[in-house]
């Protein structure tokens, strides 16, 4: 049986960048499940699997289609209970919900300021038009104006990561001694910025940067495969 993960890319299919798709890639690897990744452009997503979803990731597992990164993780946990757990029980699911909320409400907005113009520049022309129109309508200003304060956004990112920094002084992963889906959620956000901007988001010695490096090395260095 062939599993297919539809993910997001720009002009270069070898550089998938969606934070939500990176979560799922690592979750599949964590479970030891083989899959084929098929990165697509923004404007191609509505054509996938008969219009199944307006967004990626989409996982096709045999005849089953699943959308949304958290729902995919829950599906993998329930469908493959004999494989390494993504949550370690109900408490781990609750932890992952907390990390997802933290990431999407506090980390994604500042990463958008850092990366939005770079994302636009990675896209093919039809997607650039779509991306600019949709994001500028959402942001209420041009991409250039929104991303003008990148240095301030980088400093803000460091401050917002302080709760994670505190946790990682006590344990190597958010999930404890070993990574769980909670780690992949925040990793996906920072990998999104890494792939799209190429910036060093944090000092090398920062506990979050060290944790991010450990996550990049997981599953045969899957995260480092995209430089």
TrEMBL record:
<protein>
    <submittedName>
        <fullName>Glutathione S-transferase family protein</fullName>
    </submittedName>
</protein>
<dbReference type="InterPro" id="IPR036282">
    <property type="entry name" value="Glutathione-S-Trfase_C_sf"/>
</dbReference>
<dbReference type="InterPro" id="IPR054416">
    <property type="entry name" value="GST_UstS-like_C"/>
</dbReference>
<keyword id="KW-0808">Transferase</keyword>
<dbReference type="GO" id="GO:0006749">
    <property type="term" value="P:glutathione metabolic process"/>
</dbReference>
<dbReference type="InterPro" id="IPR036249">
    <property type="entry name" value="Thioredoxin-like_sf"/>
</dbReference>
<dbReference type="GO" id="GO:0016034">
    <property type="term" value="F:maleylacetoacetate isomerase activity"/>
</dbReference>
<dbReference type="GO" id="GO:0006559">
    <property type="term" value="P:L-phenylalanine catabolic process"/>
</dbReference>
<dbReference type="Pfam" id="PF22041">
    <property type="entry name" value="GST_C_7"/>
</dbReference>
<dbReference type="GO" id="GO:0004364">
    <property type="term" value="F:glutathione transferase activity"/>
</dbReference>
<feature type="domain" description="GST N-terminal">
    <location>
        <begin position="8"/>
        <end position="84"/>
    </location>
</feature>
<dbReference type="InterPro" id="IPR004045">
    <property type="entry name" value="Glutathione_S-Trfase_N"/>
</dbReference>
<dbReference type="Pfam" id="PF13409">
    <property type="entry name" value="GST_N_2"/>
</dbReference>
């Amino acid at each position: 049986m062939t599993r297919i993960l539809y993910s997001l890319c720009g002009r270069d299919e070898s550089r998938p960048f969606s934070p939500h798709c990176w979560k799922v890639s690592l979750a599949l690897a964590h479970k030891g499940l083989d899959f084929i990744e098929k990165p697509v452009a923004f404007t191609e997503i509505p054509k996938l699997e008969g219009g199944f979803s307006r967004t990626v990731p989409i996982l096709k597992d045999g005849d089953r289609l699943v959308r949304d990164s958290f729902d995919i993780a829950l599906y993998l946990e329930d469908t493959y209970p004999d494989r390494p757990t993504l949550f370690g029980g109900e408490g781990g699911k609750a932890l992952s919900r907390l990390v997802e909320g933290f990431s999407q409400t506090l980390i994604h907005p500042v990463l958008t300021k850092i990366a939005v113009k770079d994302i636009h520049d990675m896209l093919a022309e039809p997607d650039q038009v779509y991306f600019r129109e949709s994001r500028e309508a959402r942001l209420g200003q041009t991409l250039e104006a929104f991303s003008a304060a990148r240095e301030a956004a980088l400093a803000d990112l460091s401050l917002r990561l302080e709760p994670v920094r505190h946790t990682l002084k006590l344990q190597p992963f958010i999930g404890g001694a070993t990574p769980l889906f909670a780690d992949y959620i925040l990793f996906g956000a920072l990998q999104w910025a890494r792939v799209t901007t190429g910036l060093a988001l944090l000092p090398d010695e920062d506990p979050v940067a060290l944790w991010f490096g450990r996550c990049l090395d997981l599953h045969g260095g899957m995260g480092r495969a995209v430089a």
